[in-house]
Design a protein that fits this description.
Blueprint (H helix, E strand, L loop, with lengths): L6 E7 L9 E3 L4 E6 L2 E6 L13 E3 L2 E3 L6 E3 L14 E2 L1 E4 L2 E6 L8 H11 L14
Antiparallel strand pairs: 1-10, 2-3, 3-4, 4-8, 5-6, 6-7, 9-10
Length: 135
């Protein structure tokens, strides 16, 4: 049995990591943002519609998704109003440089597999037009 080992990547010098927006690291799998002297890292996907968080702005201690403006408290990633928390990754600072421990990358999937998974997970809610059938 093989064990999967986290991948350690450099996020750069702590002083160079912005405090007003998050930036993508690790081939875009994660985002980092500086909160005071601390660096936090989250999965680069919003809980709302799985859109990227990279380049999301930070205002009044909240990270804001650039696509649909969902907001998350910093430093813990808790969604404002409840409803979940962004998956986070451990960050270690060594000699002023931040390192993020990411899980191994997921195996690649075909576009067909991605679309089928999205269709299975999609929640239609009340969005059907009147008279168009039942969910």
């Amino acid at each position: 049995m093989t064990s999967q080992v986290d991948v350690r990547i450099s996020a750069g010098r702590v002083a160079d990591i912005p405090a007003d927006r998050c930036v993508a690291v690790g081939d875009g799998r994660a985002v980092v943002v500086r909160v005071g002297e601390r660096v936090v890292a989250f999965r680069n996907r919003c809980l709302h519609q799985d859109s990227p968080l990279a380049d999301g702005r930070v205002l009044t201690g909240r990270l804001i998704c650039p696509m649909h403006f969902w907001r998350y408290h910093l430093p813990d990633g808790e969604h404002v109003g409840g409803g979940g928390r962004l998956p986070s990754y451990p960050v270690e600072v060594v000699d002023g440089e931040a390192f993020v421990d990411l899980p191994p990358p997921a195996p690649s999937r075909s576009l067909r597999q991605i679309m089928l998974a999205h269709a299975r997970d999609w929640d239609r809610g009340d969005r059907r037009a009147p008279g168009r059938g039942t969910p």
